[in-house]
């Protein structure tokens, strides 16, 4: 489960898409950029391969809820 999910626009003009995201998963801090097409660009370490699909699905759901509502 993702905890302490944060996001903020990458650009001062909030109309330009792109967000910096950060969150904890399994007590590990992760950072990434969420692009307008839904692509996730990891900054530093990314979740393990066997967790990656699950984490990315949770991120997409959170972004849909918070940004695209």
From TrEMBL:
<protein>
    <recommendedName>
        <fullName>YheE family protein</fullName>
    </recommendedName>
</protein>
<dbReference type="InterPro" id="IPR017263">
    <property type="entry name" value="UCP037692"/>
</dbReference>
<dbReference type="Pfam" id="PF17277">
    <property type="entry name" value="DUF5342"/>
</dbReference>
